[in-house]
Amino acid sequence: MANILTPAVEKYLAEVVPPRDAVVADMERYAREHNVPIIGPECGRLLYLLTQISGAKRIFEMGSAIGYSAVWFARAAGPQAEVYFTDSDPKNVDLAKENFRKAGLTDRVHILLGDAVELIDTVSGEFDIILIDVFKRQYPAALKKSLPRLKHGGLVIADNVLWSGKVTEPAKDDDTRGVVEFNKMVYSSSELFPVIVPLRDGVAVCCKA
Ligand SMILES: C[S@@+](CC[C@H](N)C(=O)[O-])C[C@H]1O[C@@H](n2cnc3c(N)ncnc32)[C@H](O)[C@@H]1O
């Protein structure tokens, strides 16, 4: 629970979402049992929708954990998908590889291990979508790196931008400060048109002019 919506509304939204296939359901079960903070099916569907309506193919994820959001992106973008998975934890990379294999998506995903904010420099070309889901204190740096790498009309999407509601109070830690700064940056950017969708823990969807 992100404590943004009322518990009753969160429960409703979780229950109204249709069941997922076995691979995705297994990833959700693993995440629940091992406290992996995945984006979840409600936001997964938002990623899927945004990918399909924008026709995105080239997608860079900053912070991919066990590959859950990457599976939603890779499926939505179809056989031409080029999804870049990044995570700093080698154990997550191993789990994600296995998940992509089970999902039949291995050939759509490039796996990179290390700091996503630096790894983006190792991949050339523009991206259609960049997902920011790393440690929250890194959000401003991640945004600065992402903007020049995004095509015009592309999307920067960031999860947890309401940070369990902590954005409404004076920030007491670096992660909250990172999210607050990130939100200020996107709304004051002349290049971006952002909307914060208050789904789950808050998702920022920002289109580059
Ligand atoms: C919130 S989880 C990502 C969830 C994933 N986007 C999903 O919804 O399936 C954040 C992940 O980012 C990784 N991480 C945090 N900071 C990172 C960084 N600077 N570079 C690469 N990975 C990072 C963590 O190891 C963790 O697995």
- Helix/strand-derived category reads alpha/beta
What is the overall shape? globular
Considering DSSP H and I runs of 4 or more, what fraction of the residues is helical? 40-55%
Low-confidence stretches: none
Distance between the termini: 34 Å
Strand content: 15-25%
| Biggest sheet record | 7 strands, mixed
Write down the domain tally. Answer: 1
Rg calc: 16 Å
The first-level CATH class is given as Alpha Beta
Q: Summarize the helix and strand pattern as letters.
A: HHHEHEHEHEHEHEE
Average pLDDT rating: 97
CATH H-tier superfamily = Vaccinia Virus protein VP39
**Biggest sheet: strands side by side, in what order?**
3-2-1-4-5-7-6
Description:
- The termini are far apart.
- The chain is 42% helix and 21% strand.
- The radius of gyration is 16 Å and the shape is globular.
- Helix 3 packs parallel to helix 4.
- The model has no long low-confidence stretch (mean pLDDT 97).
- The chain has 8 helices and 7 strands.
- A 7-stranded mixed sheet has the order 3-2-1-4-5-7-6, with helices on both faces.
- It has one domain: Rossmann fold.
- By secondary structure, the chain is of the alpha/beta class.
- Bound molecules: S-adenosylmethionine.
- The site of S-adenosylmethionine has 20 residues, from helix 4, strand 2 and helix 6.
